[in-house]
Protein: NAD(P)-dependent dehydrogenase (Short-subunit alcohol dehydrogenase family)
Amino acid sequence: MSTVVMTGGTSGFGAIAAERLVRSGGARLILGARRPAPAGESVPLDLARLESVRTFAASLRDRLGGAPVHALVLNAGVIRPDATGRTADGFETTFAVNHLAHYLLLRLLLPALADRAAVVLTSSGTHDPATGAGPAPPRHADAGLLAHPDRDPGLDPRARTAGEQAYTASKLCTVLTARSLSAHPDARSRRLTVIAYDPGQVFGTGLAQNLSLPLRTAWSLLGTPVLGWPLRRFSATLNSRTAAGGALADLAAGRAAPPDGEIYAALRRGRLTWPAPSEKARDDGLAEALWNDSAGLVGLPD
Structure:
């Protein structure tokens, strides 16, 4: 039986993916979550606290008893109305949850991954200005400034724009992390499959829970079949929760494999495609700097 470790599997399309992994693949699913999971085994994890990430990783190693992890799915994410939130570690909340906590978890669990294991990190097409997505595109992927935006001289004074850029920058960091991992000697020697997954825009999930009431209401309504289905007919980037969750499960289980040399999967009209990510996301120097700077922020060697 394969073992899958996952974050973001208790709601939205992540819950659909979790259920499919258990039902169709027969996997042992271990979910890091703040509340009991509808599928699989639930282990406490608060991504807003790096100490919780370390505790989760240690607990997981004890639970596995030396058995390998066949798939690591880093799917949890948040978006906030501003960039003023701070975690217990003093980092900007969106960047800390979406990138830093997952980076730390990845580094801690890397030795436990099986040969040919899959690592799937959920990103977003909003990392790429060329997609024309609604949120403000990222200006940079400087880990120090993203962790401490009050030190960023270019921080947008408009709260909503700053919050959007914190989100889109964190998703750029996700693709860059996948790029660095795919080139890591350990990943190469063990032939890990590394994928940054863009599910498209998926309404009706819990992503908008921290936003204003009008935005939360619109997000929820657009996720209903009555409004969602007509919209998806006219936009390739809009996907249902079922399609997004199914594709995520297929990537984790190895039922959908990337073409040689590709790490970026984008769900378009319910089908997986393999386009090039943004220009910044293809910058090897930027990826290396982010990997090393993130290590410093979470207290790990490069």
Remarks:
- Strands lie at 3-7, 28-33, 41-44, 69-74, 113-122, 193-198, 264-268, 271-273.
- Residues 3-298 form a domain with the Rossmann fold fold (CATH 3.40.50.720).
- The longest helix spans residues 159-183.
- DSSP finds ten helices and eight strands in the chain.
